[in-house]
Each structure stands twice: as C-alpha cells, then as structure tokens.
Amino acid sequence: xxxxxxxxxxxxxxxxxxxxxxxxxxxxxxxxxxxxxxxxxxxxxxxxxxxxxxxxxxxxxxxxxxxxxxxxxxxxxxxxxxxxxx
Length: 86
What we know:
Blueprint: E1 5-9, H1 14-25, E2 31-34, H2 39-49, E3 56-59, E4 62-64, H3 73-85
Parallel strand pairs: 1-2
Antiparallel strand pairs: 1-3, 3-4
Helix pairs in contact: 1-3
C-alpha cells in the first residue's frame, strides 16, 4: 500500500526547501501544502497537534513534528523512509 506523504511548508523556509529537495533526490513523491495557501487546513492541523513548527510531515496519517520526532532534515528523511517501508 502506498502511503500519502504531506509536507506542510512555507516558501522562504530553508528547512522546508532542503527537505523537499532531499525527497525529490530520493524520488519520494509527496504533496506540498504551502501554509500560506492552505491556511484553514493548516490551522486545523495546528489545533490538533499543538505545534506551529515546519516542515510538518504526515506519512500515511502519522505525523512527524520538528523538535519532537526529528531534529535534523536527514533525521526526518530517515523517519519518512521508515514509515514508507514499514
């Protein structure tokens, strides 16, 4: 089963750009949700998770939260891979 990956990001966020670049390099497909465009959706996520840190990632409904689930972009990519293949 293919797990849908969502990345909530912002245009001028260096971490977001780096994460999306690494995902593209690894040919990991994802849906980019710019928080300035998907404001209402992002607000619901903020209320649910209690964080406003980005990049915020969902893999098949499992959330990866910066500073809680990963501290580096490489760590985030590693967790995404783990969730995709497990």
